Structure formats: structure tokens, C-alpha cells
Amino acid sequence: MDKVFKLIPISEDSPCLMLHPNQSELLDETMIKTTIHFGLQKIEVTCKQLATIKENEIGLSNTVIENLKLPLEVDYDVSIQNGEIIIGPFIGVLMTNSRAKLKKKVNKLKQISKQYRLVRGVVVAFSWEGIDQNNSKIIGYIYNPSSKKWEEGTFPFPAVIIERTTLSTKRKKYFKKLYGSRFIHSLSINKWKMYQRLRSNQHLIPHLPKTFLYKKPNDILKYLKTFRTIYVKPLSGLQGIGIEKFITEPDHYCVKYRSNQKNKIIHFSSENELLDYVKSKFKSKKFIIQQQIDLEIEKNHSIDFRIALIKNQSGKWEDVGIVGKKGVKGSIVSNLENGGKVIRAQTLLLTSFNLSEDEALSIRQKMYKIAIKAAEEIDKYENIYKSGVDIAIDRHHHIWLIELNNRNPSKNIFLYLGDYDTVSKLQNAIIFYAKYLAGFPKETENMGSN
Length: 450
Known about the structure:
Elements: E1 6-10, E2 16-19, E3 33-38, E4 41-49, E5 57-61, H1 62-68, E6 77-81, E7 84-88, E8 90-96, H2 99-106, H3 110-119, E9 122-132, E10 137-144, E11 149-156, E12 160-163, H4 169-179, E13 183-184, H5 191-199, E14 211-213, H6 218-227, E15 229-234, E16 244-248, E17 253-259, E18 262-268, H7 271-281, E19 287-291, E20 303-311, E21 317-326, E22 341-344, H8 345-351, H9 357-379, E23 386-393, E24 399-405, H10 412-415, H11 420-437
Parallel strand pairs: 1-5, 2-4, 3-7, 8-9, 8-12, 12-13
Antiparallel strand pairs: 2-5, 3-4, 6-7, 9-10, 10-11, 14-19, 15-16, 15-19, 16-17, 17-18, 20-21, 20-23, 21-22, 23-24
InterPro entries: YheC/D (IPR026838)
Organism: Siminovitchia terrae
Pfam family, one: ATPgrasp_YheCD
């Protein structure tokens, strides 16, 4: 466990930092001056030794404490980068646009309160209205671990910001310009953009179902003649909602879908009937057309898998869990919301796919590599920190990448199997990744590590 430090005020007129002589791991003995960072604020200080100070204390002159607006009631980690000191981590949570609403919301931050022991340093909840852009200050609430309450104060801009509200494009651009990748915000990529981005990676192309942007009703007929069976999916759909499966039969066409937890099927005796249906159903044109992948490994049951990925405190993608999903009989989707079941991935691989344990392990490793490669590809365009990767295996054991859910991949799917370890990792992922961005990577030994 990392050593934690208390900051104590020292009566010195000039900006200075005082350490116990045994804290040689913190600073080079020859170092006379350094710079201290707290969030986006910094100050140059003179370094001194003081035998009366405790080894778990860092003495700072009142000038430094006031300049950096350092709360003294919290514990801190300390990190050195390029010979300069970072005190923190200092993480901001942008909760709302209104200061009035913030006051009501702040006491409901139970999850962050529980996560504080993983953070230490300072967690500040603030609103857009609480930002003073001219002076680079924010008015917000920090969590006090002693009182276990959120207390109001004025602070510098934090080192990293987690967005927990909906911002206008202009406001989001402001934070992106100021923070770059240290502004963690929700990201939703529609299925067409995602396909285009994934397809730019040559290694992923063999694992992507052929996908086309729906433009006009005749597109359905065109691709039915090419593939005989196709899926039409909403660009921004979730939980399998709105997905329809079109099939070319010997003497007619039909469409299958789920509605009110029931399987539905409509038959069309002619192309015109089919086109009339398509015209009435897909007016918005916000859909993709996708070739069918034969995932009916068990008769009348579609099977696929969900892999949970997070970025860890080293800033690297990590595979933290996998579950299998089995669709209800006759359903074209496997989602829980549409009656599907969650089954342990290993069980499905061994039973439904008739694999040996070694074969199942080999397939699992291949799925992991494809999922990580896909997340890394999306990450080139936007900074994401977790992803629910839907991946499937056909009857020939070829692996298919269905889609990535980066906005808010559900952890509940792991709760069904009692996989509390994965649930905990998903809940805490944002905190550990924020620590990494704030200058406290796990692979780097923090100042004061045991």
C-alpha cells in the first residue's frame, strides 16, 4: 500500500517545502528548488529539511497552501514527474450545469464517497456555473474523509475531470481544449461510424460482418439478393431494440423481430409488399444493414458473448470478465432485455460448441486479443476508459466482432452470475483511470511507496 501524507502549515515567509531528513526518496539531496503541482495550479518552492517534522508529513509554507488552495483535512499521495512534485490525486467530477442543482446532488454521491479510500487526495464535485474561467478557479464541494461530508470551498482547476452531466458542444469543446485526454466524458458512437473506424484496422476486417448504411428501401432488396438474410439495426440502438431480420424464402420474403417480449414474423408475398413495409418502418433512414452471421449454434437459440474491458491505473486496456448470452427460443437477439439468459462463458464453450478445455482456452484468448484491438482502435478517435464488447463465434469457430458499447456498458449482466469481482472492477475503473491521468500511474512508484 502506498504511504499517505498529511500536509502541515509552516511559518515561513517565502514559498518552501520541508521534509524529514529520512525522506530522501522524495527529493534528491542536492535539489534546492522544485515546482509543486496541485491540479492545474503550480508554484516554485525552496526545498529544506526539518528534523522535527514527521516522516508522514510534508511541511508547506502558508504562502504555498494559500496559492494552491490546498485542503489540509485530507490524505495525499505524492508523485514525481520530470523532477517536479505532484500532490494529489486531484480529481474533479462535473455534476451539473447549475450550482443550485449541485447542492442537491452532492449529498447523493454515495458511490464516490465509498470509492474515496481508493483515491485519497481530493475529489471535488462542481458545476459549470461554479467555474471562474478568468482566474482558473472553481467553487465546489470536496469530500472530507474525517467528517464524511461534502464541504464547499474554492479550489484550482483539478488535474482531471470526469463528466457526469450533459454539456453543450461549446462547453465540451472548452474542456477538451483545456484538458485533452484528461477530460473523461461519455461517448456514444453510432454503429456506422464504429464500423468505419474498426474497418480501418486490417487485422479486424476478417472479424467484421459486412455492413452498409441504409439509404433507401430498395437497399433492403439489393442486399437480400446478395446475402439472402440480413439484419437491419438502428444506428444508435441499445439492448437489441429495433433490430429486424429479413429473410429470403423460396417463394416469398419475411421479417422477424421481437415486440413486447414476443417473437413476431410478417410474410410478404411480393417485393412491393416488402417495400411498402420498409417505407413505413424505416422513415428516419437512421439504420444499418448487416449480413447475417450464423450464430444459431443450438437449434433456435442465438449465442454470443460480452467481454468487459477497462483502462486500468497503468492506462492500459484490461480484460476483466466475460459472460455468454443465449437468446430465448426463436429470438433474433440474445439480450437479457429481450428474454435472453446469461450463462458462464466457459460452460457455453465446452457444451454448446463441444470444445475441449484447451480449445476453449485458445478461443478465449483469441476473443480477448480481438476485443482489445477493437477498443484500441476506437480509442484513437476518442478517449474511452471502458467498453462492453459483444463478440460471437459461428459454427466454424470463426470469431465475429458485433459491436462495442462504450457509453455505459451494463455491469448487471455480471451480477446475474454473482461475478462481484468484475462488477467491482467496472464500478471502480473510472477512479483508477482518473488517478493515472492525474499523474499517479500504478507502474510508477509514487513518492513514499513502501
